C-alpha cells in the first residue's frame, strides 16, 4: 500500500489505550515496526504489540528516576531513556528482565534530547547544561562532549555518518561523526523565531531534509545540504508552549504534528499545503505522533495512546 493524499485522509483511530494517568512524553517504534514503547510522566514504560494483536503487552515502572525521551536500541529488547527526577543520568535498560544494564552520568541539568544512531551503538544527548554528549552503549564514559551557547537539540542523519545540532533556536551545525572534535563542517544560521524555542530536530529518511519542531505555532523544514528554508508549517494549535512532536512519514512525503486540541495535522512536505486534519478525539493536547516505520499505521498520544489505520486502499 502506497501513501497518498486519499490514504492519509482516511486514517481513523482503530484502538485507544488508557494505561497512563499522566501525559505520555515520548514514544518509539522498534526498527522492525512490531513493537512500540512509550514513556509517561506517571513514571511508567508501556510496551505495545503493533504487528499481531495490537495490544499493550507489558508495563514497567521507573518510579524513582522518572522516564523521558525513550529510544529503542538496535537490540529491540533494550532501551535508553533520560531521567526527569533525582538525577540527570541516562539509563540503559533491558526490557526482557527489567534490569538496568548501565548508567550514563555526566549531564548536570535535565536532558532535553536523546537519540540513537541508526547504524550502531552510539547515541547523542543534549542537556540544559549547554552540552551535547556522544556516548557508546558499551561504555559508561562519554565519548565526546561539546559545550554550546544555549539549549541544544540534536539528531543523526539516516546513515549515521553525521549529526546535526540545533543551538539556541537560531543555528544548525553539522558534524562529521569521525572528526566532530574538529568542530562543525557547516553552519546554517536561520531567522530566529521570537515567540518560540526549537524542541526537536529530525532528518527525512533520504537525509535531504531537516524538520525543526518548536514549542510554538510553527514547524520549519530546511534543506539539509544548504540550510535554506523550504517550508513553514502552521495552523496547528499551540498557545501553551508545549513541545509537540513533529515527524516525517517513512517516505518523507508528509509532515505530521500534534496539536493542543488533540488533532493530528498533516502537511505535504514538498509544497507545504495542508493535506489533512485528523480528529481522534484525544481528550488532551496531542504530544507525540509517529508513523510506524514498517506497517501502515500511526500512533498518537496525550495521556492516552491511539493506534490509527487507513480505511481505504489505494
Q: What is the succession of H and E elements?
A: HEEEEEEEEEEEEEEEEEEEEEEEEEEEE
Alpha-carbon distance between the termini? 6 Å
The major sheet is characterized as: 4 strands, antiparallel
Helix content: under 10%
Unreliable residue runs: none
Strand order of the largest sheet: 1-28-27-26
Mean pLDDT, to the nearest integer, reads 94
What would you report as the Rg, rounded to the nearest angstrom?
Answer: 18 Å
Care to describe what's here?
- The protein is mainly beta.
- The chain has 1 helix and 28 strands.
- The protein has one helix at 5-9; strands at residues 12-17, 24-29, 35-40, 44-49, 55-61, 68-72, 78-82, 90-94, 99-104, 111-116, 122-127, 131-136, 139-147, 152-156, 162-167, 171-176, 186-189, 198-203, 209-214, 219-223, 229-233, 246-248, 254-257, 263-268, 274-279, 288-291, 298-301, 305-309.
- Strands 1-28-27-26 form a 4-stranded antiparallel sheet, with no helix packed on it. A 4-stranded antiparallel sheet has the order 2-3-4-5, with no helix packed on it.
- The termini are close together.
- 44% of the residues are buried.
- The model has no long low-confidence stretch (mean pLDDT 94).
Which descriptors would you attach to this protein?
314 residues; four-stranded antiparallel sheet; globular
Quick summary of this structure?
This protein has 314 residues and is mainly beta.
Amino acid at each position: 500500500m502506497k501513501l497518498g493524499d486519499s490514504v492519509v485522509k482516511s486514517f481513523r483511530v482503530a484502538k485507544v489505550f488508557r494505561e497512563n494517568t499522566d501525559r505520555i512524553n515520548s514514544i518509539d517504534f522498534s526498527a522492525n515496526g512490531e513493537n512500540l514503547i512509550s514513556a509517561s510522566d506517571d513514571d511508567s514504560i508501556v510496551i505495545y504489540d503493533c504487528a499481531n494483536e495490537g495490544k499493550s503487552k507489558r508495563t514497567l515502572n521507573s518510579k524513582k528516576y522518572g522516564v523521558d525521551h525513550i529510544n529503542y536500541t538496535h537490540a529491540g529488547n533494550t532501551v535508553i531513556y533520560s531521567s526527569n527526577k533525582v538525577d540527570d543520568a541516562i539509563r540503559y535498560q533491558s526490557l526482557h528482565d527489567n534490569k538496568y544494564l548501565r548508567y550514563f552520568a555526566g549531564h548536570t541539568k535535565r536532558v532535553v534530547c536523546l537519540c540513537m544512531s541508526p547504524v550502531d551503538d552510539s547515541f547523542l544527548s543534549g542537556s540544559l547544561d549547554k552540552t551535547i554528549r556522544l556516548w557508546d552503549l558499551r561504555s559508561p564514559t562519554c565519548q565526546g562532549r561539546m559545550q554550546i551557547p544555549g539549549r541544544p537539540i540534536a539528531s543523526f542523519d539516516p546513515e549515521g555518518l553525521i549529526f546535526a545540532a540545533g543551538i539556541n533556536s537560531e543555528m544548525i551545525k553539522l558534524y562529521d561523526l569521525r572528526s566532530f572534535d574538529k568542530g562543525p563542517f557547516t553552519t546554517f544560521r536561520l531567522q530566529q523565531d521570537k515567540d518560540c524555542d526549537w524542541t526537536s530536530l529530525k532528518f527525512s529518511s533520504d537525509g535531504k531534509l531537516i524538520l525543526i519542531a518548536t514549542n510554538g505555532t510553527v514547524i520549519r523544514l530546511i534543506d539539509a545540504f544548504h540550510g535554506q528554508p523550504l517550508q513553514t508549517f502552521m495552523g496547528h494549535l499551540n498557545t501553551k508552549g508545549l513541545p509537540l512532536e513533529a515527524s516525517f512519514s517513512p517516505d518523507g512525503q508528509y509532515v505530521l504534528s500534534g496539536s493542543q486540541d488533540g488533532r493530528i495535522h498533516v502537511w505535504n512536505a514538498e509544497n507545504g499545503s495542508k493535506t489533512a486534519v485528523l480528529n481522534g478525539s484525544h481528550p488532551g493536547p496531542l504530544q507525540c505522533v509517529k508513523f510506524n516505520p514498517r506497517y501502515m499505521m500511526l500512533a498518537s498520544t496525550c495521556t492516552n495512546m491511539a493506534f490509527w489505520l487507513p480505511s481505504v486502499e489505494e
